[in-house]
Amino acid sequence: RMSVDSVIEVGCNVGFHTVRLAELVGPEGTVLGFEPNPDSFSVLEDNLIVCGLRNRVETRRQAVGNSDGAVRFRALRDEPAGSHIVEQGTESWTARLPGEDIDVELVDIRGVIAGSQRAPDLIKIDVEGNEFAILEGLITGYNKTGQLLRIPKKG
Predict the structure, then answer these.
(1) Residues β-bridged to residue 34
(2) CA 38/CA 36 separation, integer angstroms
(3) Among 135, 126, 118, 121, which residue's Cα sits nearest to residue 10?
(4) Nearest-5° angle of CA 99, CA 58, CA 100?
(5) pLDDT digits (tens, 9 = 90+) for 16-46
(6) Which end of the chain is more exposed for a tag (fewer CB within 10 A), N or C?
(7) What is the full DSSP assignment across the chain?
(8) CA angle 56-61-17, nearest 5°?
(9) pLDDT for residue 141 is more than 50
(10) Model's pTM, two decimal places?
(11) What is the per-residue pLDDT across 2-17, written as a single tens digit (0 to 9) for each?
(12) Rounded to 10 degrees, what is the CA torsion of 34, 38, 80, 89?
């Protein structure tokens, strides 16, 4: 079994994986979770309380990418797991679905790691199309142990 004490979860949704990750890190471990959708974030918080895991998880209602700033976020009402960042100057591919566009804070994954009390053993990312920006930030950054994070290229 893999020893995991510190996890960063980008895209918690309502907390299905968050609960499992909090159980994985155990009572001495930590999970830092990000979920920008206000409705999903509220359910996430409730689920952590109901499961008795609130003390293991720090939650932030922010989006994560490869820079700091603000982004337009499409928060879907009926399918919150499909909520996503909308690129500037474009219309969301989900514009016809029930939901709203909101402004959310964007934080740089490198800053998240640098500001963590523990270097993460695991980073889980599920962000409906913004994965590349986060991976780009990881590839060009360093974790707290000074190791360059790399993703091997195929071929």
Answers:
(1) 10, 60
(2) 6
(3) 126
(4) 10
(5) 999 999 999 999 999 999 999 898 899 999 9
(6) C
(7) -----EEEEE--TTSHHHHHHHHHH-TT-EEEEE---HHHHHHHHHHHHHTT-GGGEEEE--EEESS-EEEEEEEESS-GGG-EEE-TTS--TTTTSSEEEEEEEEEEHHHHHHT-SS--SEEEE--TT-HHHHHHHHHTSB-TTSPBP--PPP-
(8) 50
(9) yes
(10) 0.82
(11) 678 999 999 999 999 9
(12) -90
Buried b or exposed e, range 68-85, using 16+ CB within 10 angstroms: eeebbbbbbeeebebbbb
Instruction: Give the orientation angle of helix 16-25 with respect to helix 38-50, to 10 degrees.
Output: 40
C-alpha to C-alpha distance for 112 and 13, rounded to whole angstroms? 19
Please provide the distance, in angstroms rounded to a whole number, between the alpha carbons at the two ends of the chain. Answer: 31
d(CA 62, CA 11): 9
Q: Flag whether pLDDT at 151 surpasses 60.
A: no
